[in-house]
Structure formats: C-alpha cells, structure tokens
Amino acid sequence: MTDSHLLAGRFGAAARLSPKALRLYADQGLLVPAYIDPDTGYRYYARDQVPRARLIARLRRLGLPMARVAQLLELTPATRVIELQSWLQGQHDRLADQTELVEALARQVDGGEPDLTAAVGVRDVAACKVVYQQRHVSVEQLEDVTLAAETEIRAHLRASGLPGDGPMSVHFHEPVSRDGERLIEVAVDYDGSVEPAGDLRLRLQPAHRAAYVPVPAAYEDFPLVLRVYDAVEAWLDAREDVSWGESPYERYPGSGGTLFDVAYPLDAAERP
C-alpha cells in the first residue's frame, strides 16, 4: 500500500468514525474500503475517501436512515443542500405540531379555556342541498385551497343560473396538520337545480343538531383556532347526554357577526 492509503483504524480516526460504523457503512455499500489485504484481511481506505466519510457521519447525526443517506450522497452538493433544507423545514413543522399537541394536553390539565367552553351552544340545523369538493391539504395549503374551491363552486352555481351566495362550510374529515395532507370538504348551500361537474358533487345535508361556538376574532387563525375545537370537545366530554358523530366543520359566515362558527354534529340518537 502507498502513503495515499490508510488502515481502517487511522482512517476512522481521521473521519471520526468508529470501527463499527466503518463496517456498517461498508456492508451498506456507502463507504467501501479501497483495498482489502487478502492475506491479513486488513482494510485500507484511500485518503480521498475522508470527505465522503465525514459527510456520511454528518448526515447520520441528523438521524437520517441509511437509505436516505445513500440517496443524498449521489446528489451534487448544491442539490443536497436544497434537499436537506426541505427536510429541515419538515422537521420544524413536525415539532410545531408536537408542540401544539403538548400545549393542548397542558390546557386540559389547567381546565382548558373556560370562556370558550361557556360559549358552546346547541342549535337545530335544517336540511339543505350542497355542492361540495373534497381535497387533501396541509395547514399551509388550507386557506388557499378553501378559497379556490369556494370560488369554483360559486362560479358553477352562477353558471347554472343560481345566485351562488349560500353559506359555506368546511368539513374536516381528518385532522389537518403540518405533517402531511388530510381530507377536507368545502361545501356551499344552494336552492334550485344544478348538475355535478368534474369533481364538484351534490349532496343533501340532512337536518341535525350541532354543538357550536362563534369563533372570537382573536382565535380565528391557526393554531389558536385549535383551542376552540378543544373547548367544544371539552364541553361534549363533560356531557353524558350528548355525543358527536360526523366530522366537525366550520360555518361561514358565523353567528353573532363572527367570521365563522366551529360546529360538531351531534349523534342523531342524542337529544340534549
């Protein structure tokens, strides 16, 4: 061997990798020895493998799985940085979601939001016809997707000769978060006759009772709006005579001059 090669021990010291890590990366094909002595079994690495070894070590310290590290190693440095920045933003978003969940649990221990819970009411909701569109969204996409769906639905109603000015509701069939996309439904009430078009569908929304809260202006935006949902759920949990069945929804415009209400349909068998 020449001076351009290092025994595994010296190479590991230069790259700050343990013998165990070197063996693992060799087995995975990420960092294969440049030469293995057939007589002694000693493994030798080329000096120019040190930068790759240090890069692998740094990527592993990020907690990335081996398969992801292998993918990143094949990218140009500039592209690798872009990928890592995107990954890091995802980590920030996931941590933000986890923080919100922990804070929600802490609020429950502290008694929640008494003013919001006290504002929960129950109302009868009449049956109505709706045009709706379903989408999978993240928190960041929610506002834009909702506006686009509402605009498309109202335009279709007007093109069908109807006013298209009915109330809008956003139904959350899955909890929307920063971590991935979840199913929502944007619906607009209408009277008259209209045909479905594309992914715009029609449904008769049955009459039901709903527990609801007019959302104060200070709680309209995410994540503070989650406290309104928590308040309604706390109210429901405290009642033995009611339960909710269908997905919660936001109703625009809200009651009492608010922008929107948060509502939970009550089980059809329940009568508060």
From TrEMBL:
Molecular function as annotated in GO: DNA binding; DNA-binding transcription factor activity
Gene3D superfamilies according to UniProt: 1.10.1660.10, Regulatory factor, effector binding domain (3.20.80.10)
SUPFAM superfamilies on file: Putative DNA-binding domain
InterPro entries assigned: DNA-bd_dom_put_sf, MerR-type_HTH_dom, MerR_fam, Reg_factor_effector_dom_sf
Pfam families in the cross-refs: MerR_1
Keywords: DNA-binding
Domain HTH merR-type intervals: 14-75
PANTHER family listed in its UniProt record: MERR FAMILY REGULATORY PROTEIN (PTHR30204:SF97), REDOX-CYCLING DRUG-SENSING TRANSCRIPTIONAL ACTIVATOR SOXR (PTHR30204)
Protein name: Transcriptional regulator, MerR family
Species the sequence originates in: Conexibacter woesei (strain DSM 14684 / CCUG 47730 / CIP 108061 / JCM 11494 / NBRC 100937 / ID131577)
Lineage of origin: Bacteria, Bacillati, Actinomycetota, Thermoleophilia, Solirubrobacterales
